[in-house]
Amino acid sequence: xxxxxxxxxxxxxxxxxxxxxxxxxxxxxxxxxxxxxxxxxxxxxxxxxxxxxxxxxxxxxxxxxxxxxxxxxxxxxxxxxxxxxxxxxxxxxxxxxxxxxxxxxxxxxxxxxxxxxxxxxxxxxxxxxxxxxxxxxxxxxxxxxxxxxxxxxxxxxxxxxxxxxxxxxxxxxxxxxxxxxxxxxxxxxxxxxxxxxxxxxxxxxxxxxxxxxxxxxxxxxxxxxxxxxxxxxxxxxxxxxxxxxxxxxxxxxxxxxxxxxxxxxxxxxxxxxxxxxxxxxxxxxxxxxxxxxxxxxxxxxxxxxxxxxxxxxxxxxxxxxxxxxxxxxxxxxxxxxxxxxxxxxxxx
Length: 348
Ligand SMILES: Cc1cc2nc3c(=O)[nH]c(=O)nc-3n(C[C@H](O)[C@H](O)[C@H](O)COP(=O)(O)OP(=O)(O)OC[C@H]3O[C@@H](n4cnc5c(N)ncnc54)[C@H](O)[C@@H]3O)c2cc1C
Ligand code: SF4
Fold this sequence. Notes:
This protein has 348 residues and is α/β, with parallel strands linked by helices.
C-alpha cells in the first residue's frame, strides 16, 4: 500500500487538507457525499463571508480548483462510506455510491463538518409555522437569489429581528455550548440588510454578543455605528403571529421591562451541531466524541487534529463549532499530522 490518505468531507476543511496533502505528493482520495464541493458555504450559497466580506463563491472556486487540478487528488462526489476495516497495512474502506469500490489508505482525515440546528426542535420561535420566521442559513440563500423579501407576501420588510443563540447555550434543547460564529454572522447579515434597506428597523435580541477577538470593531461596532442596528439584551420567550406578522415576546433585561413587538421578518441565528456524518463516521472509525457529540481532539495542545485513534485525524467543524478561517487552518494542521504519522510507518 502506497502513502495514501482518505479525506472525508469536501467542505473548507477537507478541501484544504486534500490539496495540501496532494501538494506534498501523497495519493489522496477526497470523498464527498453531495454532488457539490464547498460544504456549507456552497450548500447554503453564502455570498459574502464574515469577517472580511470576501466572496463565498470565489472561496469555493479556489478551494475546489486546488483539488480538482491536483494530479495527486482523486475527487469522488455523491459517495458515502460503507464498511471500514483496519489491519497492519492500514484502512480498507468500502465506498458506496454510483461506482462502489474499495479504498485502501494508511491515514484518514474526518472533515465531516456540522449540521444546522433545526429550530423546529424548539417550538417557541414559530419556525415552520410562520413563513416570515427564517434561519440565518435561509437568509444566506435569500441573499444569493436576490433582494431580501418577506417569504409570506414578497414585500420589502420594514422591520427585521435577529434572535441569537437559537439551539445554542440552551440546556432545554440539550446544546449547552456556544456556536461561536452566529453573533458575527448575524452582525454581517444585518450590515448587508442595511445596504439594501436604508430605512428598515433592524434589531438584534441577544444574551451576550460574542464577536470575539478582532471581529468586535468590524462587525459589532460597525453594525451599530455605521448601519444603525439596535442591540436589545433579552431572551425571547416566544414568537407568535398577529395580523400576518411575527410578534416577539420577551424581556429587555437591561431596562427590566417586558416587550411584545411585531416584525416583518425574523431571522433565527441557529447554531451548529455535529453532522450526521460526523456521528456516523466517528462510530465506523472508533474515535471518541466529546460530551456534545463532536469528535474529541485528543491532544489539542500538541496538534488540533489528533483523535483517540492513531491514523485517524479530524479537521474543521467536525471537532466543534468554528469559522471558515479556522476550518481551513485545521486542514493544514491535519495534513502536517498525517505527514508526521506516515513518517513513522514508511519512508515518505
Ligand atoms: C448561517 C451560517 C453562516 C455562516 N457564515 C460564515 C461566514 O460568513 N464566515 C465564516 O467564517 N463561517 C461562517 N459559518 C461557519 C461555516 O459554515 C463553517 O466554519 C464551515 O462551513 C466549516 O467547514 P467544514 O469543512 O468544517 O464543514 P462543512 O462546511 O460542514 O463541510 C463538511 C462537508 O462534509 C460532507 N460530509 C459530511 N458527512 C459526510 C459523509 N459521511 N461522507 C462524505 N461527506 C460527508 C458534507 O456534505 C460537507 O460537504 C457560517 C455558519 C452558519 C450556520
Ligand atoms: S456565537 Fe453568539 S449567537 Fe452564537 S451561540 Fe455564541 S453567543 Fe449565541
